[in-house]
Amino acid sequence: MRIKSILVHLEASERGRLCLETAINLAGRFDAHLTGLAVKSPFYIPSFAAAQVPPDIYTAMNEEQDLRIAKAKEVFDDVVRANNRQDRSQWVQAEGDIATAITDHSRFSDLVILGQEDEDKDMETYQSVPDNVILSAGRPVLVVPYIGTQAQIGQSVMIAWDGSREAARAVYDARPILEQASSITILSANPKRGEDAPGADLARYLSEHDIGSTIQKTVSDGVSVGDLLLNEISEGGYDLAIMGGYGHLRLREMILGGVTRHMLEHMTIPVIFSH
């Protein structure tokens, strides 16, 4: 696999700029085409209050969204121009549900980049965007946390390995990044009894592609696997994590696995998820 087309979802915020800087760095590294996507989404107003909202409020909210999208485009154009990527970049604007719009455009990309859910946002308007994209896109999704400032990623990488289909897919999807990493740690949490070298088969697979790695296993001792991974990330000084995105869709409702949900809520470094 090669990364030749990157889609980044943009907002007029510091996090949106960090997503863009991460995307432009990866686009330059792999000489990939970059698409910046902004989505004008429907307003959420509780049904019991909708009839009491004056029309001019709707107009003001609509104009505010237009201004934010215009600002996001201005930042996109500035960053693209500063990196001399005008001929390898494009701007796209969509309307509707944010997750649906990102998913629709992701079909033609090798990697999707978007921001972590902001805990201060109205969950009715921003609910489960990363979750739904991870489970629906059919593409690796790089989620950038709303804390932190590092746009250069992929030098020190942790792979959260449990031998599952999702984890194997994530490693395969991230292989172009792994090929350029300086150090890679394969972390197995709570390995099965008698499993002396969890991750050894993965290390062997990576070595066949001239990718070096080290194996580490750890036991949670009562700590959740999600917190265990976060502790290892903090202690190891990694700049990128790779893991499977576990869960499924049921009647259009996103059902996400506990470890994936925990990482999405508490992540401190960018994470590539594959489902």
TrEMBL record:
CDD domains noted in UniProt: USP-like
UspA domain span: 4-145, 205-272
Gene3D superfamilies from the UniProt entry: 3.40.50.12370
Signal peptide residues on this chain, from the entry's feature table: none
Pfam assignment, any one: Usp
Family membership: Belongs to the universal stress protein A family.
Name of the protein in question: Universal stress protein family protein
Source organism of the structure: Aestuariispira insulae
Higher taxonomy: Bacteria, Pseudomonadati, Pseudomonadota, Alphaproteobacteria, Rhodospirillales
